[in-house]
Amino acid sequence: MLGINRKLEELERSGIMIKVGLVGAGQMGRGMISQIEGMAGMRVVITADIQLTNVTSAYVKSGVPGEQVVETNNPQQAEAAVKEGKVVATTDAQLVTSLREVDVVVDATGIPDIGAKIAWDAILNRKHIVMLNVEADVTVGVILKKMADASGVVYTGSAGDEPGAIMELYDFADALGFEVIALGKGKNNPLNLAANPETAAEEAARKGASPKMLASFQDGTKTMVEMTAVANATGFLPDKPGMHGFVSDVKGLPEIFKLKAEGGQVGNKRIVEYINGIAPGVFAIIASEKEEVNHELKYLSMGEGPNYVLYRPYHLTSLETPISIARAYIYNEATIAPWHGLQAETVTVAKTDLAAGDFLDSIGGFTVYGHILTAREARQQKALPLGLVDKHVRLKRDIKKGEVITYDDVEQTVDSTIWRLRRMQDDTFKAETEKQVPLQA
């Protein structure tokens, strides 16, 4: 199998280009456009955003001359522009997913319901779909993957996102026959369950980030969502609800992930976890029963065993997404997908006391945060998946701070794509979830 770089160069020499359609020209989307514009064999030929100026600016900053950017919502004009070697800026996401010229669609919106609809439409139009929207993936990724498989296209998460980077370590270790003990990521700020856009505003302004997005990192929601994606891809489970959140440097990880009976700090193997102190890296804890393998690992300065750590100290977010685009198009392979079905769930927890009649807001907002449970635990509690939360979900009773919000606690005032897909997923995979074997602590 040729390396992706050489395969892309081969495509370009043959006059073939992977035509990418992007939805979302925020920070992630803009970076991806610029990265791809410098690559061989690939181009973002159409981008949609509610702010058309975001798209045009992203193309111009990537080096595309302004006169080569065609602003239109008309399918015929868009198709003609792409055939002429130009790029299209649009406010119509469905134009991206339906345009015949597009081979691979990328969702970079970060909004669960919009991401679910983009993925649904892309699959119906038989286009590969790359999700830079882990919140949508952990909510309805199982049914979307099933649909994609049936349609002969690839449904995948993105390289560069932490779940994708973790998956690369897992695939490497698993292929070599190592026992994989744990998979995880670093968290780069202290857990603050009360974080909201107001408390995060000052730091967000310094970093040039969205206060809402920053709050979703600070309150732990993003970490819970990302490790839920890893759980669904690998079958690994959280060692305890919410995970432990140990504090450690990289050298200390092998000892932490020994079982408690052996002097460590965990109750199980094959777990997902996050660590304060190693961000922005990701890791896999591995072991081997083979004497010669252990001898070699010690010789290679990997530690004294029995556990060893594989650590990647970076992830380049959307700048690595082109790797997933290429893998889907060239090799028909996903970077990460929920191969093991619904193994874990990021459920909805009240961030403050809430009253009956209150509407919930969204991830990184003022009302709720995410907490990882096994899928079995979530089903037993009737816990509301966090990806279903939006401004149209209203509480039917008072909820105390720290309480898990259930399906019975809410009413949906407006139906949406992600709710419909989730109902379909629950109906399709209910028996599999109920058979899930819990960890034995």
From TrEMBL:
InterPro entries: DRL_cat, NAD(P)-bd_dom_sf, SAF
SUPFAM superfamilies tied to this protein: NAD(P)-binding Rossmann-fold domains (SSF51735)
A Pfam family matched in the record: SAF
Protein name listed in UniProt: NAD(P)-dependent oxidoreductase
Residue stretches making up the SAF domain: 345-411
